[in-house]
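User: Please fill in residues for this 265-position structure.
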Protein backbone atom coordinates (compact mmCIF):
# COMPACT_ATOMS: atom_id res chain seq x y z
CA UNK A 1 0.00 0.00 0.00
CA UNK A 2 1.27 3.49 -0.85
CA UNK A 3 2.59 5.63 1.99
CA UNK A 4 0.57 8.79 1.42
CA UNK A 5 1.71 12.04 3.10
CA UNK A 6 -0.90 13.16 5.62
CA UNK A 7 -1.46 15.90 8.13
CA UNK A 8 0.04 15.08 11.50
CA UNK A 9 -2.71 17.11 13.13
CA UNK A 10 -2.53 20.01 15.55
CA UNK A 11 -0.76 20.16 18.90
CA UNK A 12 -2.97 21.46 21.73
CA UNK A 13 0.04 23.23 23.21
CA UNK A 14 0.45 25.30 20.04
CA UNK A 15 -3.14 26.50 19.76
CA UNK A 16 -3.53 30.22 20.39
CA UNK A 17 -6.53 32.15 21.71
CA UNK A 18 -6.81 35.94 21.87
CA UNK A 19 -9.36 38.71 21.86
CA UNK A 20 -8.75 40.95 18.85
CA UNK A 21 -10.31 44.16 17.60
CA UNK A 22 -11.84 46.85 19.81
CA UNK A 23 -11.01 49.87 17.65
CA UNK A 24 -13.29 52.57 16.22
CA UNK A 25 -15.93 51.48 13.73
CA UNK A 26 -14.52 50.17 10.44
CA UNK A 27 -10.94 50.75 11.63
CA UNK A 28 -8.28 48.06 12.02
CA UNK A 29 -7.09 47.43 15.57
CA UNK A 30 -3.42 46.97 16.49
CA UNK A 31 -2.07 43.45 15.98
CA UNK A 32 -2.36 41.00 18.86
CA UNK A 33 0.21 38.22 19.12
CA UNK A 34 -1.13 34.69 18.69
CA UNK A 35 2.03 32.55 18.57
CA UNK A 36 5.49 33.90 19.42
CA UNK A 37 7.29 31.32 17.27
CA UNK A 38 5.95 28.25 15.50
CA UNK A 39 7.82 25.20 16.85
CA UNK A 40 7.53 23.35 13.51
CA UNK A 41 6.76 24.03 9.87
CA UNK A 42 2.98 24.32 9.45
CA UNK A 43 0.99 23.22 6.41
CA UNK A 44 -2.02 25.34 7.30
CA UNK A 45 -4.11 27.00 9.99
CA UNK A 46 -7.54 26.25 11.37
CA UNK A 47 -9.06 29.46 12.69
CA UNK A 48 -12.30 30.16 14.53
CA UNK A 49 -13.89 33.42 15.62
CA UNK A 50 -16.98 34.49 17.58
CA UNK A 51 -18.57 37.64 18.94
CA UNK A 52 -17.84 38.28 22.62
CA UNK A 53 -20.50 40.70 23.87
CA UNK A 54 -23.43 42.95 23.16
CA UNK A 55 -26.52 42.74 21.01
CA UNK A 56 -27.16 43.67 17.42
CA UNK A 57 -25.52 42.73 14.15
CA UNK A 58 -21.76 42.56 13.77
CA UNK A 59 -19.46 42.19 10.80
CA UNK A 60 -15.70 41.81 11.28
CA UNK A 61 -12.79 41.72 8.83
CA UNK A 62 -9.75 39.87 10.18
CA UNK A 63 -6.09 39.99 9.10
CA UNK A 64 -3.60 37.27 10.05
CA UNK A 65 0.04 38.34 9.88
CA UNK A 66 3.55 36.94 10.12
CA UNK A 67 6.60 38.80 11.39
CA UNK A 68 8.10 40.65 14.30
CA UNK A 69 6.16 43.20 16.33
CA UNK A 70 5.74 46.47 14.40
CA UNK A 71 6.87 44.68 11.22
CA UNK A 72 3.90 42.37 10.61
CA UNK A 73 3.04 41.34 7.06
CA UNK A 74 -0.45 40.00 6.34
CA UNK A 75 -0.53 36.45 5.02
CA UNK A 76 -4.35 36.51 4.87
CA UNK A 77 -6.31 39.76 4.92
CA UNK A 78 -9.92 40.86 5.37
CA UNK A 79 -11.47 37.48 6.15
CA UNK A 80 -15.17 38.10 6.87
CA UNK A 81 -16.39 36.91 10.27
CA UNK A 82 -20.07 37.81 10.65
CA UNK A 83 -21.98 37.37 13.91
CA UNK A 84 -25.04 38.63 15.71
CA UNK A 85 -26.32 39.32 19.23
CA UNK A 86 -24.98 37.51 22.25
CA UNK A 87 -21.72 36.08 23.52
CA UNK A 88 -20.16 33.54 21.19
CA UNK A 89 -23.14 33.57 18.83
CA UNK A 90 -22.44 32.80 15.21
CA UNK A 91 -18.85 33.10 14.25
CA UNK A 92 -16.76 31.67 11.51
CA UNK A 93 -14.41 28.71 11.18
CA UNK A 94 -11.93 28.24 8.33
CA UNK A 95 -9.16 26.01 7.11
CA UNK A 96 -6.43 28.19 5.59
CA UNK A 97 -4.03 25.96 3.59
CA UNK A 98 -0.90 28.12 3.81
CA UNK A 99 2.68 26.97 4.38
CA UNK A 100 4.12 28.78 7.41
CA UNK A 101 7.78 28.17 8.31
CA UNK A 102 9.08 27.12 11.70
CA UNK A 103 9.93 30.08 13.94
CA UNK A 104 7.29 32.39 12.44
CA UNK A 105 5.56 34.80 14.80
CA UNK A 106 1.81 34.98 14.11
CA UNK A 107 -0.55 37.78 15.06
CA UNK A 108 -4.02 39.01 14.13
CA UNK A 109 -6.08 42.19 14.05
CA UNK A 110 -9.68 43.04 13.21
CA UNK A 111 -12.15 45.76 12.38
CA UNK A 112 -15.88 45.82 13.02
CA UNK A 113 -18.84 47.80 11.71
CA UNK A 114 -19.45 48.87 15.33
CA UNK A 115 -16.95 50.59 17.58
CA UNK A 116 -15.11 48.88 20.45
CA UNK A 117 -16.35 45.39 19.54
CA UNK A 118 -14.02 42.49 20.27
CA UNK A 119 -13.76 39.15 18.48
CA UNK A 120 -12.73 35.95 20.27
CA UNK A 121 -10.17 34.36 17.94
CA UNK A 122 -8.58 30.90 17.95
CA UNK A 123 -5.78 29.72 15.66
CA UNK A 124 -4.47 26.14 15.48
CA UNK A 125 -1.52 25.30 13.21
CA UNK A 126 -1.67 22.04 11.27
CA UNK A 127 1.51 20.03 10.90
CA UNK A 128 2.44 17.48 8.26
CA UNK A 129 3.56 17.17 4.67
CA UNK A 130 0.34 17.20 2.65
CA UNK A 131 2.04 19.48 0.12
CA UNK A 132 -0.50 19.11 -2.73
CA UNK A 133 -2.93 21.16 -0.66
CA UNK A 134 -0.65 23.69 1.00
CA UNK A 135 0.10 27.00 -0.70
CA UNK A 136 2.34 30.03 -0.30
CA UNK A 137 0.09 32.96 -1.20
CA UNK A 138 -3.43 34.17 -0.53
CA UNK A 139 -5.56 36.97 -1.94
CA UNK A 140 -8.93 38.21 -0.72
CA UNK A 141 -11.69 39.39 -3.05
CA UNK A 142 -14.93 41.19 -2.26
CA UNK A 143 -14.10 42.65 1.16
CA UNK A 144 -15.49 46.14 1.82
CA UNK A 145 -13.48 48.01 4.45
CA UNK A 146 -16.01 50.86 4.53
CA UNK A 147 -18.59 48.71 6.35
CA UNK A 148 -16.43 45.74 7.45
CA UNK A 149 -18.43 43.49 5.13
CA UNK A 150 -18.28 41.95 1.69
CA UNK A 151 -19.73 42.18 -1.81
CA UNK A 152 -23.49 42.37 -1.22
CA UNK A 153 -25.66 40.42 -3.65
CA UNK A 154 -29.44 40.07 -3.63
CA UNK A 155 -32.37 38.67 -5.56
CA UNK A 156 -34.86 40.91 -7.38
CA UNK A 157 -37.34 38.10 -8.13
CA UNK A 158 -37.91 35.36 -5.54
CA UNK A 159 -36.30 32.03 -6.41
CA UNK A 160 -34.44 33.44 -9.38
CA UNK A 161 -30.81 34.46 -9.62
CA UNK A 162 -30.14 38.16 -9.23
CA UNK A 163 -27.46 40.20 -11.02
CA UNK A 164 -23.78 39.29 -10.88
CA UNK A 165 -21.70 41.34 -8.42
CA UNK A 166 -17.98 41.64 -9.13
CA UNK A 167 -15.51 40.27 -6.57
CA UNK A 168 -12.37 41.19 -8.52
CA UNK A 169 -11.63 42.49 -12.00
CA UNK A 170 -8.53 40.27 -12.25
CA UNK A 171 -7.08 37.67 -9.91
CA UNK A 172 -3.45 38.33 -9.01
CA UNK A 173 -2.41 34.69 -8.78
CA UNK A 174 -3.10 31.34 -10.36
CA UNK A 175 -5.77 30.16 -7.94
CA UNK A 176 -5.68 26.53 -6.79
CA UNK A 177 -8.14 26.60 -3.88
CA UNK A 178 -10.77 28.94 -2.41
CA UNK A 179 -12.69 29.62 0.77
CA UNK A 180 -15.93 31.63 1.02
CA UNK A 181 -16.99 33.76 3.98
CA UNK A 182 -20.61 34.91 4.14
CA UNK A 183 -22.66 37.38 6.14
CA UNK A 184 -26.00 39.11 6.10
CA UNK A 185 -24.71 42.57 5.28
CA UNK A 186 -25.84 43.89 8.68
CA UNK A 187 -29.43 43.79 7.43
CA UNK A 188 -32.09 41.83 9.35
CA UNK A 189 -33.10 38.75 7.38
CA UNK A 190 -36.48 37.24 6.64
CA UNK A 191 -36.68 33.47 7.04
CA UNK A 192 -35.76 31.64 3.87
CA UNK A 193 -33.00 30.00 1.90
CA UNK A 194 -30.53 31.14 -0.72
CA UNK A 195 -28.08 29.64 -3.17
CA UNK A 196 -24.82 31.20 -4.32
CA UNK A 197 -22.99 30.90 -7.63
CA UNK A 198 -19.42 31.94 -8.40
CA UNK A 199 -18.86 33.13 -11.96
CA UNK A 200 -15.78 33.65 -14.12
CA UNK A 201 -15.59 35.95 -17.14
CA UNK A 202 -16.38 39.36 -18.54
CA UNK A 203 -19.60 41.23 -17.66
CA UNK A 204 -22.64 39.57 -19.28
CA UNK A 205 -20.48 36.56 -20.19
CA UNK A 206 -19.96 34.98 -16.78
CA UNK A 207 -19.54 31.20 -16.66
CA UNK A 208 -20.49 29.39 -13.45
CA UNK A 209 -17.48 27.68 -11.81
CA UNK A 210 -19.04 26.98 -8.40
CA UNK A 211 -22.74 26.20 -8.37
CA UNK A 212 -25.53 26.26 -5.79
CA UNK A 213 -23.79 26.60 -2.43
CA UNK A 214 -26.89 26.71 -0.20
CA UNK A 215 -27.43 28.79 2.95
CA UNK A 216 -30.29 29.37 5.39
CA UNK A 217 -31.48 32.88 6.32
CA UNK A 218 -32.34 33.35 10.01
CA UNK A 219 -35.40 35.53 10.63
CA UNK A 220 -34.84 38.64 12.73
CA UNK A 221 -31.03 38.53 12.57
CA UNK A 222 -28.46 39.01 9.85
CA UNK A 223 -27.23 35.44 10.26
CA UNK A 224 -26.78 33.05 7.38
CA UNK A 225 -25.87 29.37 7.84
CA UNK A 226 -23.51 27.94 6.91
CA UNK A 227 -21.48 31.12 6.79
CA UNK A 228 -18.16 29.56 5.76
CA UNK A 229 -17.18 27.18 2.98
CA UNK A 230 -13.76 25.69 2.32
CA UNK A 231 -10.98 25.76 1.62
CA UNK A 232 -11.70 23.48 -1.35
CA UNK A 233 -9.69 22.84 -4.54
CA UNK A 234 -10.71 25.03 -7.48
CA UNK A 235 -8.47 26.16 -10.34
CA UNK A 236 -8.96 29.72 -11.59
CA UNK A 237 -6.33 31.15 -13.98
CA UNK A 238 -4.42 34.30 -13.05
CA UNK A 239 -6.05 37.44 -14.44
CA UNK A 240 -9.60 36.09 -14.25
CA UNK A 241 -12.57 38.30 -13.44
CA UNK A 242 -14.72 36.79 -10.67
CA UNK A 243 -18.31 37.59 -9.73
CA UNK A 244 -20.98 36.21 -7.42
CA UNK A 245 -24.78 36.12 -7.45
CA UNK A 246 -27.54 34.69 -5.32
CA UNK A 247 -30.90 32.99 -5.81
CA UNK A 248 -32.98 33.65 -2.70
CA UNK A 249 -36.50 32.88 -1.59
CA UNK A 250 -36.52 36.41 -0.12
CA UNK A 251 -36.18 39.47 -2.37
CA UNK A 252 -34.17 42.59 -1.68
CA UNK A 253 -31.80 43.25 1.20
CA UNK A 254 -33.80 41.02 3.59
CA UNK A 255 -32.55 38.09 1.52
CA UNK A 256 -29.19 39.56 0.54
CA UNK A 257 -25.80 38.10 1.38
CA UNK A 258 -22.31 39.53 1.88
CA UNK A 259 -19.63 37.45 0.15
CA UNK A 260 -15.85 37.47 0.62
CA UNK A 261 -13.59 34.97 -1.14
CA UNK A 262 -10.08 33.99 -0.07
CA UNK A 263 -8.02 32.46 -2.89
CA UNK A 264 -4.85 30.37 -2.47
CA UNK A 265 -2.10 29.65 -4.95
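Assistant: Residues filled in for all 265 positions:
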Amino acid sequence: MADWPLFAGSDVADRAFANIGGAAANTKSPYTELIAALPRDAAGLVVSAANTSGSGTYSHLVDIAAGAAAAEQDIVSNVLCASNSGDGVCGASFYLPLVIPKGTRLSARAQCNRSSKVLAFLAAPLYGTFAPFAFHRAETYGADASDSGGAFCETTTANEYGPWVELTAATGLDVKAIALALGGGNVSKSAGTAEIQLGLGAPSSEQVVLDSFRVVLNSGTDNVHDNTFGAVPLHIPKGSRLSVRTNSSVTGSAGGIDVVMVAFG
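For context: The CA atoms of residues 184 and 222 lie 4 Å apart.
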